[in-house]
UniProtKB/TrEMBL annotation:
Top-level taxonomy: Eukaryota, Metazoa, Ecdysozoa, Arthropoda, Crustacea
GO cellular component, one term: extracellular space
Cofactor binding, note field: Can bind about 5 Ca(2+) ions per subunit.
Binding sites annotated in the UniProt record for Ca(2+) 4: D354, D449
PROSITE patterns, A to Z: HEMOPEXIN_2 (PS51642)
Residues involved in Ca(2+) 1 binding: D206, E208
The protein, known as: Matrix metalloproteinase 14
Organism listed in the record: Eriocheir sinensis
Residues the record lists as binding Ca(2+) 5: A356, A402
Amino acid sequence: MTAAMHLLAAFAAVCVGASAAPTKPNAITGTTSAMLYFTKFGYMEPELFNPQSGALLSQDKLRESIMEFQAFAGLDQTGELDNSTLEMMNTPRCGVKDKVGFGTRARRKRYALQGSRWRVKTLTYRITKYPNGLLQNDVDREIAIAFKVWEDVTDLTFERSTSGKVHIEVRFEKGEHGDGDPFDGPGGTLAHAYFPIYGGDAHFDDTEAWTINSYRGTNLFQVAAHEFGHSLGLSHSDVRSSLMAPFYRGYESSFSLDEDDIKGIQALYGKKQARPFPATQAPTLSGGGGSSGSGSSDEKLCRDSSIDVAVTMANKKTYMFKGTQYWELTDDGVASGYPRSISDDWGGLPSFLDAAFTWTNGNTYFFKGDNYWRFSDMTRDTGYPKKIAKGFAGIPDSIDAAFVWSGNGKIYFFKDSQYWRFDPSLRPPVKENYPKPISNWEGLPNNIDDALQYSNGYTYFFKDGQYWRFNDRGFRVDAADPEFPRPVGYWWFGCPASGSQMSSVHTNKAHVPLPSEGDTQDDTFDAGGLTRSG
């Protein structure tokens, strides 16, 4: 039987019949148990709910969580714990969160990528603990077919190993089993798996009645194919027919991967094609959102991932500068041919820069000491450098960072424990109530190295080889898994994970028309040329 025929919509958002009935002792029946569910699966931030007292800090947040769950599950968004909602919440399901992080309610794509992927194309796995109710040979076969589901649509190859280190460990456990995420007995959570950044292992609840090609019990193949999607870097999907939807709906004898699943896995690993690929590297993680592409790590950056400047140019290329060198970043790491010398490619630009930002007309501004330089692409404009005091009145010398914030289109400058907002449409461009404390930006440290507004709409702050992702809508450091700060080398440069980086990873990877200042003698920002259109 082919993998396609073996596969079904194992985790579609609609369940069948009695599988959803709340018969378990820990069934979701009311507000308190619902809040625990929403917290566990990412619909509510833990600090909004006190599980000991059952107190909810905001009724509005409860309604919002219910509606987000209903939307994800394909239910009518009533905002109430109605029968259909409770029925879905009591449906057996995967134990991985549906929502990873807060503050971004809509995905850019229907499929969901967690952000990490394997850099190898040949992945090994081993079943280290078998279930009690099935023969080992049968389990071996079903697990192999589940992996083949993903192998059939990508260039990945999966090999079973009986000894030595492997990429993905598969095991069947009961209750608490050493990872801090205990199973809850028959029904409820069926299994969970870890994304590549966490090692990719998959655990199955051994108290479930695992079956093969049967409408009784819980189908092993279906659940395993879903969990291995997580092991490869896919999050849950809200597409009803997707394998990566989180809810189990019962055995079906034939199915094929949904287009949503195929697009998701191919965004990580590309389409199936024959080409060599190294088989001994660590996972790579994309700092800005993640997709397939070419890239490599750089040994120097991996040893010390602190940076001087990060900037995205008008051509959408992102560069990072450090000392006398610079690097171009791809979605997977460092572009080939880097590092390169700043002096060779950026004529007139000094080394050891302080900050940089790009304005909407395509000009990029670099800062060092009391001077700044204006570049069009990689060419220095005539008449630069100029004094910060003349072109950016009210901004101090030797700044730490500069960026255009998506929240209001204004330029922000950071230095030590303070920040300034620069509005070219005002005279003076810096209001008298500045500077203000960086502590206003919830979760950010003082004395940052640089900041970058990335193409995904987030603002990233860098310090000492770590970075923070700032949620511009929520105005705070984003809540995510893994938490921030994260190691720059591992998430942005595609570096192998060192021990110190993994400890950090496992704590649970500008635009307004510019100065018509042009080449004016006094070089002050002209309000008429800088105001934001629209």
